[in-house]
Each structure stands twice: as C-alpha cells, then as structure tokens.
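Sequence and structure are no longer studied apart. To make this concrete, we show below a single chain and its fold as tokens.
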Amino acid sequence: MQATAHHKYARISPRKVSIVGELIRGKDVKKARAILLHTPKAASELLIKVLDSACANAESKYDLDRDGLYVSQVLIGPGPTLKRMHARAKGRGYRILKRTSHITVTVAERSGEES
C-alpha cells in the first residue's frame, strides 16, 4: 500500500528542493527524517512536513505501521513563476523570477524480504 502527500505552490525553487529530495529517496522513514533534520537547507523543513503528512496518511487511511514504511517516491515539479520587476537605471526594469514548486512524497510499506 502507498500513501502520498502533496505540497503545492511552495515558495522555493524546484532545483533547491530536488537536491534535498535526492537524499531521502528510497530510505526508511526514520532514517529519512533524521537526514532531513540534520540537513542545513531551507527545503528540508518543507520536506519534513510533507514526509510527516504522508506517514500520517498511511497510518490513518491504510492502518500501516510507521516503522515499516520507506520513502518510495519524491517528486518535485515546477509550479507557476511569479514575475516581478526590479527598477534599474534610466527608467528600465529587470525581471525577477520568483519560482514555486510542487512537492509530492509517497511512502510505501516495505515487504519483509527486502528488510
């Protein structure tokens, strides 16, 4: 059984999140949470919240044990980009792109043979 959690329109660049997301893909939930707690990146806080939400979904919807779960998928996609202008010399304006991300974490129950 798999349980998912989404965080849409996160105000952080998808590239920054995917660097941290690579660290936890395929790991047990406890180990993934420990890695995120000790990673000094802004994206780790967002991923902790989404990971906890996915685990809570697995426990409440499918009655799965939190100790037997692992991170099966971490998907990070680009969201809409906010376009802003920065005033420059001679009345010009430079564009500032404020990127957003869609984060999806899927946890699944590990079978007894793989442990």
